[in-house]
Every structure is written in structure tokens, then in C-alpha cells.
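> @MW can you paste both from yesterday?
MW: sure, first one:
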Amino acid sequence: MATALFQGSFDPFTIGHADIVRRALNIFDQVVIAIVVNVEKKGLLSLEQRRNLIEQVFADEPRVRIVASEKLTVEVAHDEGATCLLRGVRTTQDFEYEQVMAQANRELGGLDTVLLFTRPEYAHVSSSLVRELLRFGRDVTPYLPAGITLPPKQ
């Protein structure tokens, strides 16, 4: 069984992230979404909120599992039995950076990386864009996958 690990903070999980995972399911038997979080970094959502929102998006897809961890990505991949890392790429600059990271992950963790370019209609969407729009009180629902409703600010 081929399993890919898709990692990131996903604060929040966007329509582009969901698209990458759905397309990866055409390649892999299973995708593990690892919410890897730096405990010192404060985000828009708590770790549990992030996990719950992503679970809502993939509630009908048994081949997607969500895990949360403070470990290094390669450690989580090994723990979850992933055969490779899955990364989304939005720009050519992202691609160059991800190639360097792929080489490092191969050398340090023995893991290959599969890079999937974000579809053009989602290329402008990022978690940081959504956070910035929220900061200015804008509606961000067009950037969120179906099923996600951000909890109100506390």
C-alpha cells in the first residue's frame, strides 16, 4: 500500500490544500495529513480546531487520515508508514525551494517527495492570505474547501 504524507500547519486548510490531497488520491492508496505545529507559534486556530476542520472536509474519504504532531516531518512519515512526502507547489520559486527540500528529505530521512502543482485557479490562495483577509474582516469562504466554517474569534 503506497502512502503519502502531506504536512503543514494548515492554518487554515484551504481549497488548494484539499485539491492537492484529492488529486494525490489518484496516485496513492492513502494520504496522511500531518498537522505539524511549532508549539511556540500562535495560529488562528488551535491544533484541535485544525484537525476537526480537515476531518469535516474528508469525512467521506476513508483513505485520508489526519494526525497532529510536534515531531519532525520525516519522523511523522516513518511513524505513519508513509513511502513519500507530498507537497503542493504554487509558483516556480516554490518549485525551486521544494526541490532543495526534497533532496534534503531524501538524504536525511530516506523519503522521496512528490510535488504537485496547485491548479491555476487556486494558485493565489494560501493560508497566510486567508489569515490576512480575516484580519481585515473580509469574507474568506471562497478560499475554504466545502465543509469548513471557521469558528468565531474567541
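MW: second:
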Amino acid sequence: MKISSPAFALVGFMLATPMWAAEQTVTFDVPGMYCASCPFIVESAMGGVEGVISVTADSNARTALVVFDDDITSADDIADASASAGYDAAVIEAES
């Protein structure tokens, strides 16, 4: 059985490319969330960063749980986006 060069190259490319994103989950302290609309603003700001997969903000706990692809963005980029929306954010817990 003879395998053509393009097919062989395609298989090699697929093996060299990661199959899954390098997801990371981070909990941010967002002390400025006091009202019912604050979580929506924080979720929108953090979720607008390229590479962010999901954001769940909680105004009672004043935290935001963010899942993101760390090959595309960083926790610092996400915190900066939140700060730009008026809500300072700092990492309090990170897990791979």
C-alpha cells in the first residue's frame, strides 16, 4: 500500500497540532461588585477577551470564575479587561 505525500503531510500536521486547548480555570476577587447588574458587566468585560471560554461572576461572593485558553490569553489580560470596565480584579485561585 502506497501512501501519498499530501496524506502523509496531513497526518504529520495533525499529530503536531494540540488536540485540546490548554484550558485554565481562575477565580478572581472582584471587590467592586455590589449591585445586581455588576456581575453582568464583569462577565461581559472578561468574556470579551479573546480566548475566554466562560465567565461566572457572583456579586454576593464578589468573585468571578473564568475558564480560558492560556495559549491565547492570560489572567493578567482578563483582569485588565475587568479593570477597564471599572471593576478591579485579582487572582485568588488558579487551577489547571
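> thanks! Residues 7-17 have pLDDT under 50 and may be disordered.
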